[in-house]
Amino acid sequence: MKEVSKRKEESKKMPHFKAGLTLRSSLAIFFASLFFMPISIYLQLVSGVTIGSIAVFATTIIFSEVSILAGSPLTKQELFIMLEMCGTAATTTYMVDLIYRGYVVTSPLTKAFEIKGLPLSNFIPTWWAPPAWSDSYVYRTLFHVDWIIPTFITVIFGIFTIMTEFSLLIINSVLYIEVEDLPFPMALPTADMINTLAERSPHKLGLFSESAMIGALIGMLVHFPRIALGVETIPFPWVDLTGLTEQYLPGAIIGIATEPLSFISGMLIPWVPAVYMLLTSFICWIFLNSAFITVLPEVFPKWSKDYMPGLGLTILYQRSQLYVWLLPQIMFTLALTLFYLILRSDSLLRAFRTLFHSSSYLKQAGYLNFPTVLVMYFMGTVGSAIVFHILVPEIPILIPIFLSVGLSFLNAIIGARILGETGQSVSFPDVWRPFLYISGYQGINGWLITPTLGGGLASGWTQDIKIAYLTETRPGDFLKAFVLAWIAYRMFGFMWGSFFWTFAPIPSSTYPSTLISWPLRLMTDGIWITRQLPVNLGVVFTSLGFMVVILAVGTALSRFTGVPFSPSGIIAGTLMIPPSVIPVFVGSAIGRFLIPRMVGEKWWNEHRGLIVAGFAVGEGIVIGIGIVGSLLFRSIWTWPY
Question: Taking the CA atoms of the chain, what radius of gyration do you get in angstroms?
Fold first, then answer.
């Protein structure tokens, strides 16, 4: 009886979900992919940026106005699907990676890396990219028989990834939204914006418009001169202070990000995680970075040997990430995962019980039942491991199965936990490459392709499901809409990607961003494959043990003393450099202490999400218009002679 009463009470708290995936929202997804995908590809090749915000808002505005004229305005559920999926459909440029593979096969840089005295390019299999003598490189087209197998393999692994991420998303949603109800602070602006656009309340629309105007004005002052005229009003993306501090703290990553939205969005981040993020970021990237050069150079000899004054913040970040923090970051996140598995095991079990019983409100939300979730998960992970083993038979099949099944789950639950508590979406370190490196693997195929190591998408999507709850959109429609977006961007992306390759070589001066980024990426790949990175196993185990102790001691002290402690903030800080964390801390302090005293805590809590959303929209539109206008104004058509 208690269980029945509990379920009835829980069902009363559930929003009344409505459908968001309709004919109109489905058409919007394909519209965004068809018309904005070529702009996204071109901008990525030319400047390394995308136009997600323009694609989203332009598509939404067009469909919204047409719907109003037709006498049937868009619902907030339809707006949710459009805002979440149009950007994905318009900016996911997977086909550029296929063209990069062709560059790896044909580039002279590849021959500079050798395995057993032979050029690296000699070992690249045809299932990854066509051989160097393929006609597809002469005609520069993906519509060639030699690209069928590489493209088919990417599609197969894409399907495995979808099954894995969908199943993990459902588990995460039940765990962190149903059971633990984490705040997901960055879900609030989007949800408030959707509700305001749908309800069209004059007061909220006015506040949203005023915030957007402020965002647009600041965007005009900060970004527009740099984009349109090549003149920086302030340093971007950060103020580099390493030149002032390197004589005192050599190797320290010291600077302040200059993106205004970083400070504004920080006002939504809870204060306690923000404090711990700042603390650990400073310890790792400032003090330890310097100590590993001055006091403990033998720990990371490559880092201390390659350091020289005057490198600047960007180079210091790249080198210290590669030579110092790559493996410790993996161990830090693993420690947090193990910590939460032990500390929150009851919540995890409740989530699985909720899925297993498949209560009516979960069916209403569009979630799959527990057996189906498990089947999807193991089909995605084990299936990818089997295909991987067929392509890379020299690696025992139990290894990719173990890593795919285990790491995907751990990555999903810890990524969503950090995002749900701190509002920060962190990029977890690459696990597969360090594993291959430590294992002593001497081949090449294992470096070119990986089994499905999921969880990254599911952790971010959990925040989107939180937005679905706040807008009363059926979460199951999010999954269906992503399938449509996946089909759209693969279909239109393949077509437009091949067009731009046919139009001019990639990389080339026609696409200047690739002249810089692709050689650097190839050199990084070559360094991994030819095993030119030093690995200290002592650092690996020390990092894991050290972080476990910190998390355990911090939690114990918090329980006995009452001092707040944030394990997620601790780990997020180790993954983020100080220039990125400082705006979060400053914004959080302003949102926690200053603004509530000025306008009242109740008013601020009710309107802060809408204000941040309006600012982001205004600034994003100005940036997008500036980029597109500048490129169109400066572009020179490449004639075929």
Answer: 25
